[in-house]
């Protein structure tokens, strides 16, 4: 792992502390001592995740004519995971410390056990990462099922259904956002590596021979998307042949420079026809596609951009965290910020100010589903600004006594702290322009 450069060594600790303090992320099952590898996302964190998912869905599905979305069941016939190779091959190398008997991934560089300091490890063995469960009243080998380790499986087994019911022509894509589970040997780095997470995956089906060009197009498009949501410490890294999965013709990772080094937040893979071929063979179903234009039938190749929602959220929090003098500011891109604007009455004990501020607050909430607005009348105005800075609210709107006379409010910019007066009846247009909103 390449160490991060130019980043505060304690940045992750600061982000973790802020995440809990402000309601982004809580330790899972905290009152029972926690549960390793699981986290609960609080009100602001939930909004952040939702904004990431919506931005991805708009870019990958809604803004394109060649992609549709599905929501597949999280439990599938276990034969599907046998066909895809997950039952036999979805594993990590694991070693056990002989002193404390804790287990770790053996591909990590360890000379001593991080738990007890022991220096002797058992011989590495493969550990399957899939969670087993049972379906039905009786528990036995015939009732075994698996929590899905990725969302792609549900797309592949529905390829024929989606293509037929939507009359789609190659090239086309099927997208899905959903939960996945992996029994990680040692989850770490806060929400970066967890046992439950959400994936945003696209399977883009193309004609064989056109896959290399489409692969390059998706790498370019996906990298640009990260810039559009405010991530600057990102890079593209093409995997070497020895790193790639056996079915991959090419894989490019989009990586972010976390405080703990450069790590993958999305992978774009050219999977060839491995998936459809494997499922066709195992199920006996005909998964070929008849190309009307070329007058031929073939198994499409697949380009797969696959991203982790929580990893992107962590990258955004690390990128946003800024110490500006005595201020701690989360400089989220306005499109992604959990709260877009906060409305204040200058004084909470003045009914006329509160009444006008509430009116503005309610009208802005109704303006657009993308314009999340907060109400804040606690403490003095300075403390309110600091509070909104720390959760990343780009704009604060203050209703003061002049507002009652001239129908203007003060809007403060989070990053510059500059203020400007804006007419109340111009606020909707102001935020539509600033945030590039889609009005309801």
Q: Overview of this structure, please?
A:
This protein is 31% helix and 28% strand. The protein has 440 residues and is of the alpha+beta class. The protein has two domains: 11-88 and 146-318, BirA Bifunctional Protein, domain 2; 339-435, Anticodon-binding domain (Rossmann fold, 3-Layer(aba) Sandwich). The strands form seven sheets. The chain has a seven-stranded mixed beta sheet. A five-stranded mixed beta sheet has the order 20-19-21-22-23, with helices on both faces. The protein is globular. The two termini are 46 Å apart.
Name a few traits of the molecule.
440 residues; BirA Bifunctional Protein, domain 2; Rossmann fold; 2 domains; seven-stranded mixed β-sheet; 13 helices; disordered N terminus
Give the full name of the CATH homologous superfamily of the largest domain: Bira Bifunctional Protein, Domain 2
SS field, number of helical segments: 13
Low-confidence stretches: 1-6
Helix content: 25-40%
CATH-assigned fold name of the largest domain: BirA Bifunctional Protein, domain 2
Q: What proportion of the residues form beta strands (DSSP E)?
A: 25-35%
Describe the strand arrangement of the main beta sheet, using strand numbers. Answer: 3-9-10-16-13-12-11
Number of strands: 23
Q: Write the CATH architecture name of the largest domain.
A: 2-Layer Sandwich
List the helices and strands and how they pair.
Elements: H1 11-21, E1 25-27, E2 39-41, H2 43-62, E3 67-69, H3 78-84, H4 86-89, E4 91-96, E5 103-105, E6 125-128, E7 132-134, E8 144-146, H5 152-156, H6 159-166, E9 172-181, E10 196-206, H7 211-228, E11 234-238, E12 250-258, E13 261-272, H8 274-283, E14 289-291, E15 296-298, E16 301-308, H9 309-320, E17 321-324, E18 327-330, E19 341-345, H10 351-367, E20 373-375, H11 381-391, E21 395-399, H12 401-406, E22 408-413, E23 419-423, H13 427-435
